[in-house]
Amino acid sequence: MNSLGDPGVWFAPVLGLAGAVVGGALGPSLTSHLHWRQARRTAFVQAIAAVRKAQALRDLATGVQADVHGGTPEEISSFNRAVRERGIERFIDAMYEAKVALAGLEPYYTPSIAIDRWEIAPEVGQALMAELRQAK
Predict the structure, then answer these.
(1) Torsion-angle region of 63 (φ positive above 0: left; ψ -120 to 50: alpha; else: beta)
(2) Backbone torsions φ then ψ of 72, nearest 5 degrees
(3) Per-residue pLDDT tens for 5-56?
(4) CA–CA separation, 99 and 87 (whole Å)
């Protein structure tokens, strides 16, 4: 009963072959596209987090009260100076990390601000985070 004129004989193998050819041709490009989207999303998440961290570290610790520290006035003064210096170093490091993360966005997106200055001003940082969230 089965002959080549019967669609049940040749339809399933031809459809399977067509599916294999299309899947083989589109598989690598789809995988590449999915990897690109994941890398883009990761770059955006890292940039937003780095800018937020730098903005948060802008507010430095100004010092510990004498009754909380419990040391001599010289020890308290030295401790507070070390806290301020460490806070400034952390802020500078965080600002550098934010610039590196923003530079990592370049293959996917160019931020509207220039990242060649050493510091991102607070109002610019807020606008930049909103811009990045929207572009993400």
Answers:
(1) left
(2) -75, 165
(3) 666 666 677 777 777 777 777 777 778 888 888 999 999 999 999 999 999 8
(4) 18
**Euclidean distance between CA atoms 87 and 52, whole angstroms:** 16
- Residue 28: which residues within 8 A CB-CB, separation 6 or more? none
C-alpha dihedral sign at 79, 81, 87, 89: negative
Amino acid identity, residue 35?
Answer: H
Predicted TM-score (pTM) of the model is 0.70
Write out the DSSP string of 34-89: HHHHHHHHHHHHHHHHHHHHHHHTTS------HHHH-S-HHHHHHHHHHHHHHHHH
Contact present, 120 and 136 (Cβ < 8 Å):
no
